[in-house]
Amino acid sequence: MENSLNTFRQGKDDFFANHTNSPLTPEQRERFSGLSYFPENQALQFEKDVTPFEEQELVQLPTSTGDLKTYTRYGRFSFTVDGEQAELTLFHAPYGFFLLFVDSLAGSETYGAGRYLEPEQLPDGKFLIDFNLAYNPYCAYNDAWNCPIPPAENRLKVPIRAGEKNFN
Question: Are the CB atoms for 137 and 116 separated by under 8 Å?
């Protein structure tokens, strides 16, 4: 995985530095030298069963600009981090599955408003949840972006030392 993760990260850095759709302002791009990442952490890569909720209700999550975005509350899964049990709720959006979370490092090593993931549903029905792919929402780079805020049920007391770190 490490080679493909490095390739993914290099591609993302190139997108941020050079693409017209980069979330960075032109001034930020001038001094941009790459995003900061935790080293790959295979202990935070899981194939998990997600227990679907009996009622998959629509919920509105507040955003960084004060708007609301609607998602389907799909199901919940549990996992272990450094010997501690953790649980998160998986949401469904028009583009696929969506996991937004805040970990115990938020505001210091990771973005204070949380990070995102798009877990992949595997052919056997399990989900590939790879926190090495956790990323900051675009509002972490530029206040002009409108980003959903993780709900209280997805605020972890454990550190997720994988994926993107805080943007400097």
Answer: yes
- What mean pLDDT do residues 33-40 have? 95
Q: Which two tokens stand for residue 39?
A: 């080293």
Distance CA 80, CA 64 (A): 29
Helix (H, G, I), strand (E, B) or coil at 85: strand
Kindly report the pTM of this predicted structure.
0.92
Summarize pLDDT for 142-165 with one digit per residue, the tens. Answer: 888 999 999 999 999 999 999 999
Q: What angle do CA 140, 121, 21 make, to 5 degrees?
A: 30
Determine if residue 50 is left, alpha or beta; phi over 0 gives left, psi from -120 to 50 gives alpha, anything else beta.
beta
- List Cβ neighbours of 116 (8 Å cut-off, separation of 6 or more): 98, 99, 100, 101, 134, 135, 136, 137
Q: What sign does the CA torsion over 104, 107, 112, 117 have?
A: negative
Cβ(136)–Cβ(164) under 8 Å?
Answer: yes
82, with CB counted inside 10 A (0-12, 13-18, 19+), is exposed
Condensed to tens digits (0 to 9), the pLDDT of residues 44-98 reads 999 999 999 999 999 999 999 999 999 999 999 999 999 999 999 999 998 899 9
